[in-house]
Amino acid sequence: MACFSIAVCSCAYKGTIRKRKIEKLFTRSAISNDHFTGFALYDMDVKKMVFELNSDKYFTPASNTKLFTFYTCLRMLGDSIPAFRYSQGSDSLIFWGTGDPSFLQTGLKATNGYYFLKKTEKKLFFSSGFYQNDFYGSGWAWDDYNDYYQAEITEFPIEDNVAVLSSDKAGRLQISPAGLSMYLKCDSSYKPSSFRVRRDFLSNTFVYPAMPVPVDFHQEIPWKTSTDLTVSLLQDTLKKPVYEVHMPMPDSAKTIYDANADTVYRHMLQPSDNFIAEQLLLVCSSVKFNMLNADSVIRYSKEHYLNDLPDVPQWVDGSGLSRFNLFTPRSIVVLLCKISGQMKNDSLLHSLMPAGGVAGTIRKAYQTDNGVPFVWAKTGSLSNNHNQSGYLVTRKGKRLAFSFMNNNFTRPSREIRDEMVRVMTYIHENY
Known about the structure:
The chain is of the alpha+beta class and 431 residues long. The chain is 31% helix and 22% strand.
């Protein structure tokens, strides 16, 4: 009994020392003390919180929001992403969008749905009007409309909903999909400091300056979505007519599946793809409710999957582009444990996440430990906000979940990133 008491006291003492050492990393940090910092570190093996700093306070999560989308997808979707629903008549094929982001997407290049529509000899009808939200998420910044990371949300996305502009061998400006070439306009009154294309906010007019096109020019701009454009692009890529209709989807409608779900999640998480995240909420809505409404998915997930979080999440979009999202570090840690429990495979889970020194948005932030990554974390960045939340394995083999959030700073983001790396590397080496 005496030996047991000594062992318990010894362990408690070591735990206190560890906690104090971690606390000093923050109290002695000039960087962490000049803005709003939150931190939660949880030992997944002993199921105990190791250290907390403002972990019950709400922070703007930015792309940490994608972890909520990821978990909801794990609960609602199967092992493949549905491309669309369809119903066939004697000479016609009617199809309804599911919001599938993988259809001819640049990185995923999912083609099952494409070839199904391409090979059929039936007349094609796209039944539109099932998407119930706006083309932007709640709280998005409208003046980011020309930037690649803010593609519009739609029921049947094609090729990322983003136009790719580049120079051809003759030095001429070209655009892909080629069907958008009719909208390219030279404007001598448009005089940016360097060659850059600007889309009109309300239309697909792409304006470029009367300047030579740089040899290596490359720019990606979201196009203005519309059903007419969707039909036009489908016709252009399928090389056959597509007609628009408005018909209710019968219960007997069948499903064509496109990309492997884990592959899609990896393409969302590692580069932090906003387009995929937003569209996946629509896919969830299609599967769960036979409609396309992101709000219904968020509401259902909060009520049924996330109702045991320490703090109620203020969750409004799939990607984290909105500053209306607010989560606490301790709730994100609980979410990370839920994700791990749902996956039941650490190796697979780590392969989907950005890996320090190896892949994704933290590839250049961390060094590996003798070639082996030790941190797998989702980043989240908006102006004056930079966060990391994920998993860490220490040199002693301890499995930790953490959420490290930094809001309202004015110094360069790289300094915040480097400080997070310093703290997490110390914990890896010493805990």
